[in-house]
Amino acid sequence: MLGLTRTRAQQRSSRSMSLGMDFSEPKKRSGICGRILMVSTLTTLCILMLNHSPSFGYPGKFSIHELGVPHILVTGGAGYIGSHAALRLLKDSYRVTIVDNLSRGNLGAIQVLQQLFPDPGRLQFVYADLGDAKLVHQLFSQNAFDAVMHFAAVAYVGESTLDPLKYYHNITSNTLGLLEAMAAHRIKTLIYSSTCATYGEPEKMPITEESPQLPINPYGKAKKMAEFFGTSM
User: Fold this and answer.
1) pLDDT tens-digit map of 93-150
2) In sequence order, which residues have a C-beta less than 8 Å from that of residue 121 and are 6 or more positions away?
């Protein structure tokens, strides 16, 4: 691949010299910037429509406990696992609030859930980052949650080795902030989505709950610390 890349670069260079000027690179950059701007604009419009959609924004329903209708906060509910968990909860007649900053989540998953469960008081989406402690406490103050399912997290082992602080902030620190909000509002039920990366390179297979947790990368270490905080509540 490296050899091929160099060859192509040399060919472009020779063409540029023979013509005197090469406008292909500025055009490419302009096209890429245009596409990025268009995607950003469409995403912003979709978020605004979701926040003002008739199936969201019914605080009366979400701010009170209703007998027989548990209200579950699903963090990272726009992600693959989180959205499927939300779907299952909604099918089983739970009330669901999804919070996601859409940095890794899929806005389309929220839209599908909205279409499947359009009735007021069933589902609401909150575009927010768990790193904003003030906003997280406001979220808990305005909603009567019965339990939390915590899926929100960056989740790439390789990336964690290149930028470990990002993972400690996003996973460990954000989970701690979520737990503080839960404690302040007396919510004691947490389902936490962890990872097999907390076990590192196990000596025996298969991995069981009794296997020693010896993570070898920042992703696994951040998750293990978050687990410890959760079990210490």
Assistant:
1) 999 999 999 999 999 999 999 999 999 999 999 999 999 999 999 999 999 999 999 9
2) 58, 61, 62, 95
3-class state of residue 143 by DSSP: coil
Question: Quick check: 167 and 219 in contact, CB under 8 A?
Answer: yes
Residues with a known catalytic role: 219
Q: Which of 112, 102, 122, 108 is nearest to 55 (CA)?
A: 122
Measure the CA dihedral 167/173/179/184, to 10°.
-150
Contact of 81 with 105, CB cutoff 8 Å: no
Is the bond preceding 26 in cis, omega lying within 30 degrees of 0?
no
Sign of the alpha-carbon torsion through 183, 151, 128, 175: positive
Question: Which helix (DSSP H) or strand (DSSP E) does residue 192 occupy?
Answer: strand 190-192
